[in-house]
Amino acid sequence: MKTVNIHLFGIVQGVGFRPFVSRTADSFGIKGTVANKGSYVEIIAQGSESDIAAFEREIKEHPPERAVILGLESIELDDAPVFEGFEIIESEKEYGDIFVSPDIATCDKCRQELFDKGNRRYLHPFINCTQCGPRLTILDAMPYDRVRTSMKKFPMCKECEEEYYSPLSRRYDAQPVCCNECGPQVYIIGEDTKGLAAITKVRRAIMEGKIAAVKGIGGFHLCCDAKNEAAVMRLRELKHRPMKPFAVMMKDIDTARRECIIKPGQEQYLTGWQKPIMLLEKRDSQTICDMIAPDNITVGVMLPYAPVQMLLFDTPDGVDMTDCLVMTSGNARGAPICRDDESAVKEIGSFCDIILSHDRDILIRADDSVCDWLFDKPYMIRRSRGFAPLPFMLKGAEGVQAVSIGGELKNSFCVLKNGMLYLSPYIGDMADVRTVKALEESLSRMTDMLEAQPQAVVCDKHPMYNSVTFAEGYAKDKGLPLIQIQHHYAHILSCMAENGYEGKVIGVSFDGTGYGDDKTVWGGELFVCDMQGYERAGSIKPFVQVGGDLSAKEGWRIAVQLLRAGFDDAQDICKQLSLCDEKTFKLQTAMADNHLNAVKSTSMGRVFDAVSAILGIRLSSTFEGEASTALMYAAELYERAKGDSDTDLPCGYVDNEGVILDTTALVCEIAKRYLAGGDRGELAYGFHLSIAKMIVKGCTALREKHGINTTALSGGVFQNRLLTRLAKEGLEKAGFEVLLHSLVPPNDGGIALGQAAYAAFNR
Ligand code: ZN
Ligand code: ZN
Ligand code: FE
After folding, report:
1. 321 alpha carbon – ligand 3 mean position (Å)
2. Cis peptide bond N-terminal to 389, omega within 30
3. Could you read off the pLDDT of 150-179 as tens digits, one per residue?
4. Beta-carbon contacts of residue 346 (< 8 Å; ≥ 6 apart)
5. Is the CB of residue 545 less than 8 Å from the CB of residue 534?
6. Is residue 697 within 8 Å of residue 652, measured between CB atoms?
């Protein structure tokens, strides 16, 4: 006999969940208790191992219709009393213990009703039910009740009210419930066109090659026909976005199958209730135009998740509609996604020909989430709509409340309360003051909703980050202590927190750039660390990074300095590789030697950019990650054609004060071989494999020294799925346990989680 403590997260409140658990327990002969803990449901289950397993499976797979189970955690209890039967424990709502649901994609039943002529919600652009619809984005305050959402200005009609109050209805207690009679309305900004006429007008405009802005659940999208090259190119021009891939919304899963290769497991996510953008491999026979994701193996695809999007594809008005729409966030460069008419007109009005809006307010922005796929699981790139603010649990963090402010690019923040880490939706790039404002708004809303009373504020150490300035001001206003933690350590903590791991790890933090404790640029770090602190046990070989912000975009600048470190005739080599001419080389050299706008750096991200430049793939990037992603594609295509192959490229390290991975020697050898006629794809692949081997060697050396067998891989460089796979496989072969991210991004979008975890253990 065994006893387990089960925590269930999700929409498990007010949906008849506890009676269901009690009935299910009886049918499996399980004894114990079930209690509503506000933010989760707690079950103590006692029974045979197999009965408990079957009981857990049943709860997870067949919950009551209106419940959504987002997570189940089961921990075995060592010394539990013997239970006589199964009991429901009535608990009063504990102060501030609440659950905030993410927004849920329109369910199949609502979709059917939407296109059912006999239904009273036929073609209603806001149809929803207890199981689907907006949540976080319309929430004003807790508890979640219609008067505290942006639905408060739409009094229910008699029929809707009946459904809302009837426990037999599938709209019982559904806060956003509404219909064609009483609900919000869509309209075209600046015109008197409303309702279905407005939708038809937008469909026509799109098919005429125009660009439309469309208000959805978490903000506006810019949208055009994904098969119309001229429209796509015009959108690129207007948005000043020459190369960065656009996401595509496809009409249904069959369309996605026709355009892309869908791996087992991916379909469930594409069609599920979260509906993120998934990076899918393109088919050669794709009908969407190449310029949507130029030079890319994959394209970001999502299916319609809001009724208005379903109507864009399928309104029966005779318009011959495309089945693939570009759907990119409606924002000005650097600014957060627009959420109201005023900002839409002002900030994206000049990017589009027509704006379809509606009068249900978006109170918290939520961009579309984006995920890749790795080891048969989602691998998050941007965590937002559908996922935020679902909490992560951290044992031992129960007594502390804190907020963490995250990083600078890809900002998100995190609220820690009662052992739960509520990671916010994606906020954006803090270099833009509008994003700082968005952070301020969302933070205040989230702390109010969670009734949090933070005891500390955590942020990065970078003296120039707007997020740090904001955190300082926030801490001062609230009279709270400010804790600043090192950027790359926060990445590793984020990975540990996501995996619920509190022991010691060897952290491999490979990233763009971050502020190091020695005031140099870090980003290729090996740590020996735990939740309490860290030791920098190694890094890649330092190089000179010349040119400040430009060096983050222009990989050739990094390449020049790396080649200078390895070759006497670097100038000639740079010329042969078309990195730069003589004059530019001399200027770069002078700047480096005279320490003008030059810093010591161990940024691994920059080394990837340099190799991309050396192999003639990208000399510079027009968006973050362009050069390194293109390098990864070259390597992946080679691997696919040739199968696994080993590399004899140098992948050594030096060990004096700490482990120094010799990336400079590797890069110089790659340049040499490329000039001697080496194959670009082979060298790109060899580079990835060599870095993975260096990781294994470095971790092995640290394991010998410190006796730690667990590694954690985090930082923006691990968005590179090839490197992540090769590193994990190599580490496991060497006997390591490897912690990877899955639902939290390895990039800066995840560091708020690590910062909050630190507060939990160091307050
Ligand atoms: Zn529904
Ligand atoms: Zn109604
Ligand atoms: Fe970072």
Report:
1. 42
2. yes
3. 999 999 999 999 998 887 788 877 889 999
4. none
5. no
6. yes
**Token pair for residue 109?**
């039943």
Of 2, 131, 130, the C-alpha closest to 55 is: 2
Q: How many CB atoms lie within 10 A of CB 502?
A: 18
Cis peptide before 650 (omega within 30 of 0): no
pLDDT the model gives residue 96: 45
What is the DSSP-derived secondary structure letter of residue 39? Answer: S
CA-CA distance, 246 to 235, in Å (whole number)? 10
The partner residues of 9 in beta bridges, in order of sequence, read 71
What residues are paired with 37 via a beta bridge? none
This prediction has a pTM of 0.91
Residues with CB under 5 A from ligand 2 (ion): 157, 160, 179, 181-182
Centre of ligand 2 to C-alpha 122, Å, is 12
Q: Which of 526, 603, 519 is nearest to 561 (CA)?
A: 603
Cα 120 to ligand 2 centroid, rounded to whole Å: 9
Nearest to 310 by CA among 171, 125, 179: 125
Nearest listed ligand to the Cα of residue 183: 2
pLDDT of amino acid 139: 87
User: For residue range 275-328, what is the model confidence (pLDDT) as tens digits?
Assistant: 999 999 999 999 999 999 999 999 999 999 999 999 999 999 999 999 999 999
Q: How far apart are CA 275 and CA 293, in angstroms?
A: 20
Cα separation, 149 vs 183, whole angstroms:
13
Q: For residues 350 and 205, give the distance between their C-alpha atoms in angstroms, rounded to a whole number.
A: 16
- CA dist., res. 522 & res. 272, Å (int): 39
Q: Which domains does the chain have, with CATH numbers?
A: 2-88 (3.30.70.100), 186-358 (3.90.870.10), 389-499+750-761 (3.30.420.360), 506-739 (3.30.420.40)
Strand partners, 653: 661
Neighbours of 586 (CB within 10 A): 12
Task: Name the token pair of 330.
Answer: 């409606």
Neighbours of 582 (CB within 10 A): 11
Whether residue 446 contacts residue 425, with contact meaning beta carbons closer than 8 Å, is answered with: no
Residues of the chain with confidence (pLDDT) below 50: 93-97
pLDDT at 93: 46
Q: How far is the CA of 158 from the centre of ligand 2 (A)?
A: 7
- Separation of alpha carbons 376 and 719, rounded Å: 15
Where does residue 106 rank: exposed (0-12), middle (13-18), buried (19+ CB within 10 A)?
Answer: buried
Nearest to 672 by CA among 577, 565, 561: 577
DSSP class of 132: B
Please report, as a single letter, which amino acid is at residue 490.
A
- Ligand 2 mean position to 190 CA, how many Å? 27
Residue 658: left if φ>0, alpha if ψ -120 to 50, beta else—which one? beta
CA 548 from chain centre, in angstroms, equals: 27
For residues 284-321, one letter each, b for 16 or more C-beta atoms within 10 angstroms of the residue's C-beta and e for the rest, the string is eebebbebbbeebebbbbbbbbbbbbbbbbbbeeebeb
The number of the ligand nearest the C-alpha atom of 157 reads 2
Rounded to a whole number of angstroms, the distance between the first and last alpha carbons of the chain is 39
CA–CA distance, 563 with 577 (Å, rounded to integer):
11
Provide the β-strand partners of residue 710: 737
Q: Return the ligand number nearest the Cα of 178.
A: 2
If one counts every other C-beta atom within 10 angstroms of the C-beta of residue 233, the result is 14
Q: Are 422 and 446 a contacting pair, CB within 8 Å?
A: yes
Of 658, 650, 669, 660, nearest in space to 540 by CA: 660
